Amino acid sequence: MILLLYLIVNVYYNLNHSDGSLSEGEFSLLYTKLSLWAFLFGVLMEWNGISRIIQGEWKFNWVTLIPTAIISILVFIPNFYWVKWYGAIGPEDFFLNIFQIPETHIILAVLAGTLLVRSFEK
């Protein structure tokens, strides 16, 4: 888990200190890595649930899997595309602001990873 925290901080640092010199592809790759590391961190937070799933003690739960899938899809879209699709977003657009700020992206990715494991627990 410490390795994942290091990777999250490293990518976050690279995103914040790029000075606009990153191409669209490089920025998308870094943002996708940030989401992936945070998602895996959320999965590993539920290590007890993972061990029960590996032992075969699991039950499929649609109620938590559907929101998990929706959050995961939204989180893995880099914020560059949210700006490209919807333009500059003001403070009144609460929903879209959630996906533009890297910190909320990280929080939602961790939540999606945690919910994924919980959707297979008994």
Report on the architecture of this protein:
The protein is mainly α and 122 residues long. The protein has one domain. The protein contains 7 helices and no strands. It has helices spanning 2-16, 24-45, 47-54, 62-75, 79-86, 94-100, 102-118. Helix 1 packs antiparallel against helix 2 (24-45) and helix 4 runs antiparallel to helix 7 (102-118). The chain is globular, with a radius of gyration of 16 Å. The mean pLDDT is 87.
Helices, strands, pairings?
Blueprint: H1 2-16, H2 24-45, H3 47-54, H4 62-75, H5 79-86, H6 94-100, H7 102-118
Helix pairs in contact: 1-2, 2-7, 4-7
Distance between the termini: 24 Å
Share of β-strand residues: under 5%
Mean pLDDT: 87
Please work out how many helical segments DSSP would assign. 7
Secondary-structure content class: mainly alpha
The helix content, as a percent range, equals over 70%
User: Number of DSSP strands?
Assistant: 0
CA radius of gyration:
16 Å
Shape: globular
Largest beta sheet, briefly?
none
Helix/strand order = HHHHHHH
Number of domains: 1
User: Runs with pLDDT <50, length 5+?
Assistant: none
